[in-house]
């Protein structure tokens, strides 16, 4: 049983639960505040994240920082992690077996953080966390409630890189997330 952040880090660093452990350069553990009320969950580390061992340090990370800045949030205000802790070669979608193998780490992160708000970045995270038939185009910015947590999904920053017309609507979704956090958490 994992009960501390340090134990999660140690397990992820030594993980061989799926074959991505053979191709990864570095595993990528979640980063940010371990007291955050907002938890962002994305898909899997990209090439640059794999090199540096940190989430969202590449081009998607710059988009994410812009989105956070647009609603006066900083990386230190949130906790950000991925469904998979290791980079899938060629940036392919994570396989079911990989998601299952890695899911315990996300559960432990969520258990220790106890976020008030979970924001899924993109379809893969939304379908794993919110609902298997989640349609990001139609349902981004909508809310689902589970126990003491409000969940939503927004476009993945890499989708914004491919289609910059998604930026404005995603900024609006982030404004709503901050508003929700003020109502739902003790966020000022
Ligand atoms: N894309 C993701 O889904 N996660 C990262 O950490 C970086 C890019």
Could you please describe the fold and organization of this structure?
The protein has 188 residues and is α/β, with parallel strands linked by helices. The protein is 45% helix and 14% strand. It has nine helices and six strands, in the order ααββααβαβααββαα. The protein has a six-stranded mixed beta sheet with strand order 1-3-2-4-6-5, with helices on both faces. Strand 5 and strand 6 form a beta hairpin. The longest helix has 18 residues. 43% of the residues are buried. The mean pLDDT is 96.
Overview in brief:
The chain has 188 residues and is α/β, with parallel strands linked by helices. The protein is built from nine helices and six strands. 43% of the residues are buried.
Give keywords.
single chain, 188 residues, alpha/beta, six-stranded mixed beta sheet, 9 helices, 45% helix, globular, binds uracil
Write the layout of secondary structure elements.
Elements: H1 5-13, H2 20-23, E1 31-32, E2 38-42, H3 47-52, H4 59-70, E3 78-82, H5 96-113, E4 117-121, H6 123-129, H7 136-139, E5 144-146, E6 149-154, H8 157-162, H9 167-184
Parallel strand pairs: 2-3, 2-4, 4-6
Antiparallel strand pairs: 1-3, 5-6
The structure holds uracil.
């Amino acid at each position: 049983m994992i009960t501390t952040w340090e134990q999660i880090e140690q397990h992820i660093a030594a993980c061989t639960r799926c074959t991505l452990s053979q191709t990864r350069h570095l595993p990528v553990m979640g980063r940010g505040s371990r007291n955050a009320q907002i938890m962002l969950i994305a898909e899997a580390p990209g090439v640059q994240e794999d090199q540096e061992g940190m989430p969202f340090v590449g081009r998607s990370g710059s988009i994410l920082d812009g989105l956070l800045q647009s609603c006066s949030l900083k990386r230190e205000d949130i906790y950000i992690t991925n469904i998979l802790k290791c980079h899938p070669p060629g940036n392919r979608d994570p396989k079911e077996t990989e998601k299952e193998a890695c899911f315990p780490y996300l559960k432990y992160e969520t258990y220790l953080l106890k976020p008030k708000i979970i924001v899924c970045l993109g379809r893969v995270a939304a379908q794993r966390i919110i609902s298997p038939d989640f349609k990001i185009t139609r349902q981004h910015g909508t809310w689902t409630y589970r126990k003491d947590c409000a969940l939503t999904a927004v476009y993945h920053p890499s989708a914004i890189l491919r289609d910059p017309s998604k930026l404005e609507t995603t900024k609006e979704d982030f404004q709503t997330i901050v508003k929700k956090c003020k109502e739902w958490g003790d966020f000022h």
